[in-house]
Design brief:
This protein has eight helices and 14 strands. With 258 residues, the protein is α+β, with helices and mostly antiparallel strands. The strands form three sheets. The protein has a six-stranded mixed β-sheet. Strand 1, helix 1 and strand 2 form a beta-alpha-beta unit.
Length: 258
C-alpha cells in the first residue's frame, strides 16, 4: 500500500498535474494540503473516474485539505477544535485500515509577526487534540505540510537560518511534542542521516540549486512504522510535466506492506 502527503499549492492551478501524478504513482491514500478551494470546486467525478473517493475540508482562496483514497472514507473530524479562526487546516478520516489525518499547519510568516505566536498556539492545540484521541497502538498517520524544519538535516543552511521562521527552538519543540505522543517521522526513521528536502522556493533558482527545506512529513504510530518498506520524496514531481507547472512542494510517499 502506498500512502502519501502533498501540498499541491492550489487545486485549481494544479489539478491536471495532480491527475498526472495519480496516474503515474497510483497511491492508495493521499493527504493533500493548500487546496485554496471549497468542496464545491473539487472535481470529485473526475477523481472517481480515476478510482478515488474524496473527503474535502476546503476554504475559498486559502488553506484547504483533502484525503483521496481507493477505499471508502469515513470522516472523523473537519477542522482543529478550538482553532476555527485559523481556517481549514485539518481533516481526519478512517480509510484503508488507517486513522489518517492531513494537516496544513500555519506558516507563521516571521518571528516578529503576530502569526508566529498563533502558529505555536495552533501546534499546542494539535498536540492536545491528538494526545486525547490517537492511541499509539493503533495504525494512525498524521501527515502534511508542517512548516517546520525539525533539525539541521532538514534545511539547506542551518547556520544562517537557525532562529528564523521554521527553524526556531519553539517550533522544533512543538514538532518534538508530536513525536512524544508515540509518532514517528517515517522518512527520518528509514533515512536517519540523509539530507533531502520537500520544498523549494519558486524564486532564486532554489530547486535547481537544491536550496530547500524538509517540511512535509508522514508521521505515524509504531503499528504503521512496522509495515514501512520504503519512504521517499518524489522530487521528480517538483519538475514541470508536459507543460504543467509543479507545486513548490514535492510529494512524500511511504510504501507499506499489507
Amino acid at each position: 500500500m502506498l500512502v502519501a502527503t502533498w501540498n499541491i499549492n492550489g487545486l485549481g492551478a494544479r489539478f491536471d498535474f495532480l491527475v498526472h501524478w495519480l496516474k503515474a504513482r497510483r497511491p492508495d491514500v493521499v493527504g493533500l494540503q493548500e487546496l485554496k478551494a471549497t468542496a464545491e470546486n473539487v472535481p470529485v467525478e473526475a477523481l472517481e473516474e480515476l478510482g478515488y473517493h474524496a473527503a474535502v475540508w476546503g476554504q475559498k482562496a486559502w488553506n484547504g485539505v483533502a484525503v483521496l483514497s481507493r477505499q471508502p472514507i469515513e470522516e472523523v473530524q473537519s477542522g482543529l477544535p478550538g482553532e476555527e479562526e485559523a481556517g481549514a487546516r485539518l481533516l481526519r478520516v478512517k480509510t484503508a485500515g488507517l486513522d489518517f489525518t492531513t494537516v496544513y499547519c500555519p506558516n507563521g510568516k516571521d518571528i516578529d509577526h503576530l502569526d508566529y505566536p498563533r502558529k505555536l498556539e495552533w501546534f499546542d492545540s494539535l498536540r492536545d487534540y491528538f494526545s486525547g484521541s490517537v492511541r499509539a497502538d493503533e495504525p494512525a498517520v498524521l501527515c502534511g505540510d508542517f512548516n517546520i524544519a525539525p533539525t539541521r538535516l532538514d534545511t539547506h543552511d542551518e547556520d544562517r537560518l537557525a532562529g528564523a521562521i521554521h527553524h526556531t527552538e519553539a517550533e522544533r519543540a512543538r514538532f518534538q511534542g508530536l513525536l512524544d505522543l508515540g509518532l514517528f517521522d517515517l522518512y527520518r526513521e528509514l533515512h536517519p542521516d540523509t539530507v533531502k528536502f520537500s520544498w523549494w522556493d519558486y524564486r532564486f533558482g532554489a530547486f535547481h540549486r537544491n536550496l530547500g527545506l524538509r517540511i512535509d512529513f508522514l508521521l505515524a504510530t509504531r503499528r504503521v512504522l512496522e509495515r514501512v518498506e520504503q519512504v521517499e520524496t518524489d522530487r521528480d514531481y517538483r519538475k514541470k510535466k508536459e507543460g504543467l507547472i509543479a507545486s513548490d512542494h514535492a510529494p512524500v510517499m511511504a510504501r507499506l506492506v499489507s
